[in-house]
Amino acid sequence: METPDKLHVLILGSGGREHALLKACLRSARVASVKVAPGNGGMALEAECLACNISRPSEVLELVRKLSIDLVLVGPEVPLAAGVVDVLEDAGVLAYGPRAAGAQLEASKVFTKNFLVRHKIPTADAASFTSVAPAMEYLAQRPFPAVLKASGLAAGKGVVIAQNLNEAEIALREMLEAKIFGTSGDEVLIEEFMQGEEASIMLMVCREQYLMLPPSQDHKRVGEGDTGPNTGGMGAYSPTGVVTSEIETRIRKEIIEPTLRGLISDGIDYRGTLYVGIMVTDLGPRVVEFNVRFGDPECQVLMPSMETDPVEIMESIARGTFRAADVRLRPGATLIVVLAAHGYPAAVRIGDAIELPSQLPEGVDILHGGTQRQPNGALVTSGGRVLGIVAHGATLAEAAQKAYTVAPLVRFAGCHYRRDIGARQLRRDGVA
Ligand code: AMP
Ligand code: GLY
Known about the structure:
alpha+beta, Rossmann fold, 5-stranded parallel sheet, 13 helices, about 25% strand, binds glycine
């Protein structure tokens, strides 16, 4: 069979996830060249970064044509929901990520809840509301805590766990009346609170075929011991023992297979990453949410864990020719500690000068998220999750030890990070 020429790749996005995708491209034998739009201060040292409003599919197509790109890897959800893959594919350009119809699994929590119920996939009971009074009547009959979710995209911040009617009313008024999430809060889902431990399951999907990457665990709260407000994710590690082989079998049978069958029967051609947020409860695994892209920071621990070239898999999924096969994984464990900016996850201060260590120990890498280079080359903070320290070790304890040796060597004013990334697994392993 003819082997296609090597690929000129464009990555869309500017976070740590996209930096991990860039590193995967730089390692890949399939890639002739790689560029990024818009990128960040770390990626700029490794690839050409181009200005582009990636949420506008027509702008992305224009850039792709100008640069003669063969394959586009879409990092974040907003361009996917805006239909960037539809526009690229319809113009004959290969793109990794679902089309807008599939991206609704992340862009509309009401759509997803209806999908899960229709296809009998285990999840929290829920009802949706567009005004406060009927929502309060419903809540008066329900146990607390209750989970309130803005239906649309809210950068991971649209979920409130209300402990009582008073807290619920405040959150409902903010979403439905004060519109703190804009139109994303026009509809609010009220869900049963599921007790258990969460895991992130990243699937690379090509219609009914899929590859399950090793389960990982995110740390969503800003503070140690899972305290304080939710963030985009303060750290992650993989693999995680919360997904035992018995739970994994149930996830495949009770969640993944009916989901992929459901997408096909609903007429959705799903090709791309499907991130299944799972709560492992006493009743078994249940869906917390779907995302239609790699997790950030989960992607940063999964890409370096793969010996099989992820770019080859993404290419074959974009072509629609992927056949599930075993992925070769590196033995050991990978962990990331996210270093966040002053104020994160609330109002973030930007422009703080960053100092990086000049040398890193074997098996440690620093990935950039919210960083920017100034015209004189100085590196400054430009977003909430500034840098991620990724460490690989024979064991999770070794990976954690390496990451936490490097963390204090990175300096910027206001830097904060959690010191307990991976702690649950270390306790399971009996080493903490
Ligand atoms: P989501 O954006 O739907 O992933 O929600 C963000 C976070 O809120 C999740 O990662 C969970 O930690 C928590 N959460 C969401 N839904 C539920 C639920 N029904 N029960 C318990 N926790 C939840
Ligand atoms: N780490 C959670 C997310 O990417 O949504």
